[in-house]
Amino acid sequence: MKNYLSINDIDSLPKLVEEAKNLKKNPKANVALGANKTIGLLFFNNSLRTRLSTQKAATNLGLEVMVMNFGNEGWALEYEDGTIMNQGTSEHIKEAAQVVSQYCDIIGIRAFAGLTDKEKDKAEVVLNGFKEYASVPILNMESSVGHPLQGLADAITIDENKTKKRPKVVLSWAPHPKALPHAVANSFIEMMQLQDAEFVLTHPKGYELDPKITNGVTIENNQEKALENADFVSVKNWSSYANYGKVLNQDESWMMTKEKLGKAKFMHCLPVRRNVVVNDAVLDSEQSIVIQQANNRTYAAQIVLKKILENL
Amino acid sequence: MKNYLSINDIDSLPKLVEEAKNLKKNPKANVALGANKTIGLLFFNNSLRTRLSTQKAATNLGLEVMVMNFGNEGWALEYEDGTIMNQGTSEHIKEAAQVVSQYCDIIGIRAFAGLTDKEKDKAEVVLNGFKEYASVPILNMESSVGHPLQGLADAITIDENKTKKRPKVVLSWAPHPKALPHAVANSFIEMMQLQDAEFVLTHPKGYELDPKITNGVTIENNQEKALENADFVSVKNWSSYANYGKVLNQDESWMMTKEKLGKAKFMHCLPVRRNVVVNDAVLDSEQSIVIQQANNRTYAAQIVLKKILENL
Amino acid sequence: MKNYLSINDIDSLPKLVEEAKNLKKNPKANVALGANKTIGLLFFNNSLRTRLSTQKAATNLGLEVMVMNFGNEGWALEYEDGTIMNQGTSEHIKEAAQVVSQYCDIIGIRAFAGLTDKEKDKAEVVLNGFKEYASVPILNMESSVGHPLQGLADAITIDENKTKKRPKVVLSWAPHPKALPHAVANSFIEMMQLQDAEFVLTHPKGYELDPKITNGVTIENNQEKALENADFVSVKNWSSYANYGKVLNQDESWMMTKEKLGKAKFMHCLPVRRNVVVNDAVLDSEQSIVIQQANNRTYAAQIVLKKILENL
């Protein structure tokens, strides 16, 4: 693997999931692989799971880890070509990416969607800026458009919990007081299209995602109908894509409950707002597999880093 | 040792002090003990000594260390049960503690008293939230009620400097311009009760600490009288407990001076405001053992982590 | 080497450059040298290159690294002697420096000039405070007066690129919208005086640097004339020294361009504001060696740390 920018950088998802499950049994087996190599984890946004699980994964592979909160520890970056940089930005992505490549063998980037400028978010200026100018592989730790480490962790978790060859998996929108990015939902949908499952996407009208990503996906606006006989229900809020970055409604009736969930397993990428996105009864039940999902973030990151290291 | 939440988690303080002193002679002797294990140090408040000494101690034991400033790098946590989380908090302690437990074998927590809500501070919501929901041992790196790593470092320092079997140790309040927590004083008092010494607590009226902690302790409001023939004088400011979190007075006459100190050794947990809490003449004299105290923070943390690791 | 506070702490620059170039060929050759030792990197200001390259260098030498953003993670420090500390500062440099010395075998310090109080900046209160009170070696990671790791990296880069024994090297001022410190320019000038080269300093009138540093240096206010037949052109903005910390002009005609550069190599310490300090055509050409300069930051730090470690 050269870079890991999107779920679609995976050759065969089922094969990679299998390898991740093996590695989970013996996380230190490849500790020699990263010896004398360094990964830089650059955070332009907050992070708990990604921060700790990616560090853990890198350490399991013997990599040295340098963590940097780019926003308040470094310099404000410029992404436009040809700008006269006499305003707020101090350093161009061209230099920053090349410079960090001198110190790191792999660069991880977390840079969320700003949710104000759709075209800028779609262009993924931070992630793609590093990809274009860095001379080392880039790991997407959540960009404006995707969160492929989460998507891969979700695939591992579904695989570990499925009791039939072709489970029914539902991704359901849920209410939230703040405008959230589309990245997690996008990567979940892309991930589902790389494996054998019955996949249904459900959300209120107005919450349609990028049609390029949902192309070919079954969309059902009736949540109850979508959830029928589901084996896995993954819940997530996102803001409007058409009316970009707007919170159109916070319809409480879309909150996930024990009744709606039926016998399905409950998934969420976390952090999750209790009793807004999902109620306590679901999260505190044995049907919730969110902690297992969080644990699999380590092995998702580790298998991806392993593939990148093997390709160096 | 399962957790280290309070000085009272220590079985035998004199024995632990002895072990810490041995380990100080050969800090790397147990470097294999933490191999392939990870400690997460979560800071909800500023830290210099605790941050560096706990990292150093963990590294001496071969642990991998992940440091996180939870407040500005992670998500605002909710601690109440049953809340509808549609306000400022993004993640519940239930998930956060379980999730961090997936990545770390031990979790260190620093979360100061807010000094506005006495009941909330006494409940130690952050520390106890992690204790309740984490599946790994918890290390208290200063909570609202106690600072047991400091208390243990103080015990080691007293032991190293005492010239008689049963020294006289005084804990004296001192003035300070800001309202400070009770944690350091509490742990010092608890620590003194676990060893053979003549212990006197002195403070102006109104600065009584939690009576549950000072139960059985000699309290003397006349500082001069309290200090008579002292072998060790530990100085610390704290705000009022009864009139919770208030600065009742900044009586300069309580500042520690060379005259008052007599022949005693001077102790302070640091940081210390010079010429407010204690004057330069004391700090710059050979009677001050504050730097040795700070050094012992490493060995206090290391002996505690060693006990926790041996119990894993 | 005891400390590395200034370029002038180097015995023989040509010899050290030679050693750095050898170490660059085999960066892990001395990984045993730092074993069981710890470096603390204390940042009072933002940093990208210094942060990552110094960590990388330390790791190459087998050192444990503890990074701390002192400003927002620790306590506000007092530097004055005898102060009654009842205002904004919580800890005196006397304690802070001694305490950090308990946990670290080497301390790196980054503390920029404030550019408001010339005497205070010249006194280098932070760096010199640590030097005075720490009991371990101090590494200057850019102080108010100098940036000797940058200066050494520049020397390595010039050596790697020179095609004649005595190249002509020009340091040229360039415009910038904000007031910048003199540290990088100072160390470049000091570095040039330690080797055999034709060195010319060029800047508009009013931008004279500290005469103690430029003593004996050829200064030419006509940029075009200064640049004639240059082999290396290092560009940097700095604010006025006489009219301390002021931006006297932002004369665009001083921006470096392809025409002015001629056949010279272009150098800059980065971050650089494109099309303000230098235009895109220069930075994107093969004449720019700024990325190589940034890479050499690792080996500058590593050779200095090696010398310090060998002297421990």
Automatic annotation (TrEMBL), chains A, B, C:
Location of the Aspartate/ornithine carbamoyltransferase Asp/Orn-binding domain: 184-305
Name of the protein: N-succinylornithine carbamoyltransferase
PANTHER family according to UniProt: ORNITHINE CARBAMOYLTRANSFERASE, MITOCHONDRIAL, ORNITHINE TRANSCARBAMYLASE, MITOCHONDRIAL
HAMAP family the UniProt entry points to: SOTCase
EC number annotated for this UniProt entry: 2.1.3.11
SUPFAM superfamilies membership: Aspartate/ornithine carbamoyltransferase (SSF53671)
Similarity comment text for this entry: Belongs to the aspartate/ornithine carbamoyltransferase superfamily. SOTCase family.
Keywords for the protein's UniProt record, in alphabetical order: Amino-acid biosynthesis, Arginine biosynthesis, Transferase
Keyword check for Nucleotidyltransferase: no
GO biological process: citrulline biosynthetic process; L-arginine biosynthetic process via ornithine
Known pathway: Amino-acid biosynthesis; L-arginine biosynthesis
Species of the source: Maribacter vaceletii
Top-level EC class: transferase
Summary of subunit composition and partner proteins: Homotrimer.
Catalytic activity, as annotated: N(2)-succinyl-L-ornithine + carbamoyl phosphate = N(2)-succinyl-L-citrulline + phosphate + H(+)
Record-linked Gene3D superfamilies: Aspartate/ornithine carbamoyltransferase
Chain residues that bind N(2)-succinyl-L-ornithine: 142, 176, 236, 273
Function, in words: Catalyzes the transfer of the carbamoyl group from carbamoyl phosphate to the delta-amino group of N(2)-succinyl-L-ornithine to produce N(2)-succinyl-L-citrulline. Is essential for arginine biosynthesis.
Stretches assigned to the Aspartate/ornithine carbamoyltransferase carbamoyl-P binding domain: 2-160
Pfam families: OTCace, OTCace_N
Cross-referenced InterPro entries: ArgF'-like, Asp/Orn_carbamoyltranf_P-bd, Asp/Orn_carbamoylTrfase, Asp/Orn_carbamoylTrfase_sf, Asp_carbamoyltransf_Asp/Orn-bd
A GO MF label: ornithine carbamoyltransferase activity
